[in-house]
Amino acid sequence: MSDIVVPASWVVDRLDDLRVVDVRDPWEYDGIGHVPGAVNIPFDAFRADEHAADGEGGGEGMLPGEDVFADLLGEAGIAREDDVVAYDDHHGVFAARFLVTAELYGHPTDRLHLLDGDFSAWQRDHETNGDAPDVEPTTYDIRAPSETPLVDADAVAAAIDDPDTVIVDTREDWEFEESHIPGAVAVDWRELVDDETRGLKSREDIEAILADAGITPDKRVLLYCNTARRISHTYVVLRHLGYSDLAFYEGSLTEWEAAGRPVESA
Questions:
Q1: Distance between CA 21 and CA 35 in Å, rounded?
Q2: How far apart are CA 263 and CA 228, in angstroms?
Q3: What's the CATH architecture for 153-258?
């Protein structure tokens, strides 16, 4: 496995060399405390619906737009060459969305890390801080990556009958049963998380869950949910496990259904 998903001990040993990003709400960051040195970039700040009036982004839960994201990171003192660790207090799903957004705007993928567990897990065994760090704003350099996992609805439609691709719905079972893309398999993103540790289950357990759904490293894995939040966590986990052929349907079921594309129900 890679160091994409990293334990708290890894972060503690490298705190002085990392930029730690807390994506919780400001009241949690200020009132409950945070990882020492962490900056606060709340989840709602990098959601497109926060900037819809400016024509930025693609809708609720979608990418916020290059200028918006660059300003957020620059104001937080984060540069493109920085090693970034993100966390939240929801098993990593909001933090994963931040990391995927950074990847899609060109931050080097080997410098993006998800804290294994979340703030509640960190707080059990490690120091927290209530003071925001002094940061020096910088200019964040957006560079479009040469390759991207993003696919559009037409690519998803073409994948439905592709035996080498497995389309994965990462929502809850009841959502899948109500409506899903034809041919998709269901793996709720939370199935990969241990409720007690709040971090990932063991590699063996995760691979067994994936294999039961027909998700194996020899397949192309195409992920979707409703508004691209939950697939972010599964995408980060699969990258961490070494899956190399991943596709990310940013529009997800919200866009798919709005376009009148066919759906199935269980």
A1: 9
A2: 18
A3: 3-Layer(aba) Sandwich (3.40)
